Amino acid sequence: MIKVAPSILSADFANLQRDVQMVEQACADSLHIDVMDGQFVPNLSFGMSTVAALRPLTSLTLDCHLMIVDPERFVEQFAQAGADLIGVHVESTQHIYHALQLIKQAGAKAEVVVNPGTPLNMIEGLLPLVDQVLIMTVNPGFGGQHFLDAMVTKIAALDALKQKNGYDFDIEVDGGVNDVTVKKCYDAGATVAVAGSYIYDSDDPAQRIEDLKVATN
Ligand SMILES: O=C(CO)[C@H](O)[C@H](O)COP(=O)(O)O
Ligand SMILES: [Fe+2]
């Protein structure tokens, strides 16, 4: 069964506490927080003050997906704000190895993220270092986009590398996840699924979390 990480990008920002506690009660496995700077992606969203505000409200793992230029400037502040896991894009910095080291030094779990157009060989050397790899299944920047089917072979290729080398990182997928696409990802080796609009744009978010789990059971 896949682990489910609801993305609050699609939550009601005027009722974030309610929307976070709702998914926690519905057995979400972690909470996905999309951080955007208007440069790496053409959108703005949350910052470390949002993470600090949510930290005392939930015991869910806070999974922060940084879509910002040179994320190494801020990873320590995100960890101090309460992030448990911090994801940095390989495309966002000249110093990805350093960024991942800083995350670990700050006491958080380290994740490397790859855009749809980025081949896996860009992150192969990082795989022994990371706790999680995030394969983007849409181009980053916005919720509610269509899942890119071509990413399924990339997930399978990453899982093959993981098995061959005995690595134990989680494989997370993000973008366009629903009860149909989640099964393709899970069958290819994904262990964690982010879902924003599928969960929060529903009248029954708890049922949607259940549906994602049942689809991969
Ligand atoms: O990183 C993201 C966008 O860049 C979001 O996590 C992702 O898009 C979730 O939204 P949805 O499930 O609606 O596609
Ligand atoms: Fe995300």
Structure, described:
By secondary structure, the protein is an alpha/beta fold. The protein has a single domain (3-215), classed as TIM Barrel (Alpha-Beta Barrel). Helix content is 33%, strand content 20%. The protein is built from eight helices and eight strands, in the order βαβαβαβαββαβαβαα. The protein has helices at residues 16-25, 48-54, 75-81, 96-105, 151-165, 181-188, 197-200, 205-215; strands at 3-6, 30-36, 61-67, 85-89, 109-114, 132-136, 170-174, 192-195. It has an eight-stranded parallel β-sheet. The N and C termini lie close together (5 Å). The model has no long low-confidence stretch (mean pLDDT 98). Fe (ii) ion binds next to β2.
Structural class: alpha/beta
Secondary-structure arrangement, i.e. CATH architecture: Alpha-Beta Barrel
Order of helices and strands: EHEHEHEHEEHEHEHH
Here the CATH topology equals TIM Barrel
> What is the CA-based Rg, rounded?
16 Å
What is the residue-mean pLDDT, rounded to a whole number? 98
Low-confidence stretches: none
CATH class categorisation: Alpha Beta
Query: What small molecules does this complex bind?
Result: ribulose-5-phosphate, fe (ii) ion
Largest sheet: 8 strands, parallel
- Cross-sheet strand order for the largest sheet: 1-8-7-6-5-4-3-2
Instruction: Measure the end-to-end span.
Output: 5 Å
**DSSP summary, beta strand count:** 8
> Could you say how many structural domains there are in total?
1
DSSP helical segment count: 8
CATH homology-level superfamily? Aldolase class I
Proportion of residues in β-strands: 15-25%
The coarse silhouette is globular
What helical percentage do the residues reach? 25-40%
Function: Catalyzes the reversible epimerization of D-ribulose 5-phosphate to D-xylulose 5-phosphate.
GO cellular component, one term: cytoplasm
Protein name: Ribulose-phosphate 3-epimerase
Cofactor: Fe(2+); Mn(2+); a divalent metal cation; Co(2+)
